[in-house]
Design goal:
The protein is an alpha/beta fold. It is built from 15 helices and 29 strands.
Length: 574
């Protein structure tokens, strides 16, 4: 016998449809659930609500081989033969993350093709791979944030077995895997779960209606999310989750969903005997997210830190538009390196109000994920241009040096390590003409308001926009890209071998700066950066013993003074 169940609290009738249009009446169980046992059931199934004859996929479908509009398929997690029994996990503290998008990481755009590039990541020195969302969405390619099946890996990427093969292969190479997951909204096409029950709230966020986390029937909605989280960690053996835009999860309950997730994940981690990480994306600069539960916080392990990105990006590029307006000075970067947040109860000109709250000085820096580039900060530019398109190689190296020697958890975006010339643009493949037109026009209007001519903004629906965004691995054969990769490898190896450079104690970091230069002290190690287009001498807070790494030629040390060529950084041992 095979048991089928579905939550549909407001339905008066629910039927199970199997292959051959064979229907089975389901009976009510507890708390709005419907259930039926069927002998000799085939793999594919769907549900019919009330007297509607439209078959709908299971909101908890583990597999959608025919796409998000097709029937669900049963999947036996126990049938996969894992080979990672010796895997003990990878903790977030001390790790380096690498964000990648399966669809554009390789020409094939599949989990299996990505496996062939894992050795590159090992040689680079990263510890954790962060996959952009891989749950099922409508269409062939997409960033992944339009997902509608929160339990099913996207079939064109390789489906459930493909994801398991990828995780298994990563673990065999000592690499952990983190999934980016989206629980703050459903995508615009194929979102059938709200037809079964009150999954959505009345209020909306930037992407559509918010999820019902605190209204009537919200217990089951929260369980829907929690069970999805536990499934990825337990059944797919992933090592952590990045929770997208948690500020768009309205929740007034005494125990917020995020804290509930932390509790359940800690329990699962204890049972599995390996570390499991929850990383939040939030624009609130609210320390409660990463404050331990016993200290009154939510107990998440880390959060993305846009302030670190903005401080570095504006200083390197000179850009000041939009939310970059408050950044761009050495003082700002100094505040971030020593305090984590820049907006910590300070005035935000972009928001036209005060923003954020200070971090406790005892909070370790590894709870903040920092980056020079990520999918948002590249892909949400009008043309999807990387900073390598506008910065000199020398300034790119200076930025990388500061990122990888700061007291945070550093993250790279795919191709950053060789200064990839390919853009990463906003691309979609919505089959519905009306939706495709709305996305296309909305993107153009958005950037037209910032002064971009419509013709300069790539059409998200044009297949070439997607093709342009694929990494060009042949670039590694070119001297300028190979040289950048070699630098990243040496920098990461130095971070790993020098305990000062991975020390997460922000209150132990001291920074001094002057005319376009900055000196960051990390224990007995100094990081000195010259942002100027001219060489200059910089006084050091101690006598230098040797230069551990320099971003360019011509660095000289004279006891307590260093001479740096233009746009150069050096790491010095005292």
């Amino acid at each position: 016998m095979t048991e089928f169940s579905v939550w549909a609290p407001d339905a008066t009738r629910v039927r199970l449809r199997l292959a051959g249009d064979t229907d089975h009446e389901m009976h009510t169980a507890a708390d709005g659930w419907w259930q039926v046992d069927v002998p000799d059931a085939g793999p594919d199934y769907s549900f019919l609500l009330n007297d509607d004859e439209t078959p709908l996929p299971d909101p908890r479908s583990p597999w959608q081989p025919a796409g998000v509009h097709g029937p669900s398929r049963r999947y036996d997690h126990a049938a996969y033969a894992w080979s990672d029994s010796a895997w003990t996990g990878r903790q977030l503290p001390g790790s380096i993350l690498y964000e990648l998008h399966i669809g554009t990481f390789t020409p094939e755009g599949t989990f299996d093709a990505a496996i062939d590039r894992l050795d590159h990541l090992v040689s680079l020195g990263v510890d954790l791979i962060e996959l952009l969302p891989i749950n099922a969405f409508n269409g062939e390619h997409n960033w992944g944030y339009d997902g509608v099946c929160w339990y099913a890996p996207h079939e064109p990427y390789g489906g459930p077995d493909g994801l398991k093969r990828f995780v298994d292969a990563a673990h065999a190479r000592g690499l952990g895997v983190i999934l980016d997951v989206v629980y703050n909204h459903f995508g615009p096409s194929g979102a059938y779960a709200p037809q079964f029950g009150p999954y959505l709230a009345e209020q909306s966020n930037s992407w559509g209606r918010s999820v019902n986390l605190d209204g009537p029937h919200s217990d089951e909605v929260r369980r829907y999310i929690i069970d999805s989280v536990l499934m990825w960690l337990r059944d797919y053996h992933v090592d952590g989750l990045r929770l997208d835009a948690v500020h768009a999860l309205p929740d007034t309950r005494a125990i917020p969903l995020l804290e509930e997730l932390a509790i359940e994940v800690e329990s699962l981690s204890t049972h599995l005997g390996r570390p499991l990480s929850l990383i939040a994306e939030s624009d609130l600069n609210d320390p409660r997210l990463i404050t331990p539960r016993e200290a009154g916080g939510f107990g998440l392990h880390a959060q993305w830190n846009d302030d670190a990105h903005h401080a570095l990006h504006t200083l390197l590029t000179g850009e000041r538009q939009g939310y970059y307006g408050d950044f761009g000075s050495l003082e700002t970067l100094s505040d971030v390196l020593t305090g984590g947040f820049f907006h910590a109860g300070t005035w935000s000109s972009f928001r036209n109000r005060h923003h954020g709250r200070p971090l406790d000085s005892r909070v370790p820096g590894h709870r903040l994920v920092a980056y020079l580039q990520n999918h948002d900060q590249i892909g949400n530019r009008a043309t999807g241009d990387r900073i390598s398109a506008s910065l000199s190689p020398s300034l790119l190296r200076v930025g990388a040096t500061l990122l990888l020697t700061a007291p945070f958890t550093p993250m790279l975006f795919m191709g950053e390590e060789w200064a990839a010339s390919t853009p990463w643009q906003f691309f979609t493949s919505h089959p519905e003409p009306e939706l495709a037109t709305a996305v296309r026009n909305g993107r153009r209007r958005e950037f037209a308001s910032h002064g971009w001519p419509e013709g300069d903004v790539p059409d998200p629906q044009d297949p070439e926009t997607f093709v342009r965004s694929r990494l060009d691995w042949a670039e590694l054969d070119k001297p300028e890209h190979a040289s950048m990769l070699s630098f990243y490898q040496r920098l990461i190896a130095l971070r790993r071998s020098t305990s000062d450079l991975s020390d997460p104690r922000m209150h132990e970091v001291s920074v001094q700066h002057g005319d376009q230069f900055l000196v960051m002290r990390r224990g007995d190690t100094l990081v000195v950066a010259n942002f100027a287009g001219r060489g200059q001498g910089v006084s050091l807070p101690g006598v230098a013993r040797r230069v551990l790494l320099a971003t360019g030629e011509g660095v000289t040390v004279m006891r307590d003074r260093i001479q740096l060529p233009a746009e150069t950084a050096a790491i010095v041992a005292l």
